[in-house]
Amino acid sequence: MSAGEPSTVESVSVGERAVPGPDELGELRKVARVVLLDPQDRILLLHGHEPGDPSDNWWFTPGGGVEGDETREEAARRELVEETGITEVELGPVLWRRTCSFPFAGRRWDQEEWYYLARTTQTATEATGLTELERRSVAGARWWTCQELNQAHETVYPTRLAELLRRLLDEGPPAGPETLDTEIV
Question: Could you give the CA distance from residue 91 to residue 20 in angstroms, rounded to a whole number?
Fold first, then answer.
């Protein structure tokens, strides 16, 4: 799931199991995120906050860490079901890749995120597979139009999501994954 980055980093799947940081393993946490669009081209974002401080909040795409030997694509599908209950999804290509680092829940998260394009007609959400940390830090989900996202005053991760979504809707998916700027909060 995507929890939070409080300032410039994208979502960490909130509520994910604690995993050793890169300083302990010498590598970035592998994360799969989903840019989920409905038939009206609205994007689904989750509303997260720092556990114990709902005023420190942000919006982020569904997704989370790769577990065991699963692929990133399998992680994207699993996380989407756990965080939204959405099972009817057409998973497309990887749109973007990003490295980010942010504090959340008393630790630093350093991760490499891959963003998959997905489409669905299933717009009702129900988070039934959240971890304990996610239950303390995810406040809900909302479908956003590109215009609403562009006009939002809330913090959204990745920080250029409105611009990236507009380009995606206007031009279609890139020929290959685009590398986004590293975000460190």
Answer: 29
Residue from 117, 100, 110 nearest 174 by CA = 117
* CA–CA separation, 185 and 181 (whole Å): 13
Q: Are the C-beta atoms of 19 and 117 separated by less than 8 Å?
A: no
pTM over 0.90: no
Residues of the chain with pLDDT under 70: 1-26
Contacts of residue 24, defined as CB under 8 A and 6 or more positions apart, other chains included, come to: none
Largest CA distance in the chain: 44
Phi, psi for 30 (deg, rounded to 5) = -85, 125
Query: Which residues of the chain form beta strands (DSSP E)?
Result: 2-3, 12-13, 29-37, 43-50, 53-60, 63-65, 90-104, 107-119, 138-144, 156-157, 178-179, 183-184
Provide the CA 39 distance to its chain's centre, in angstroms: 20
23 φ, ψ to 5°?
-65, -25
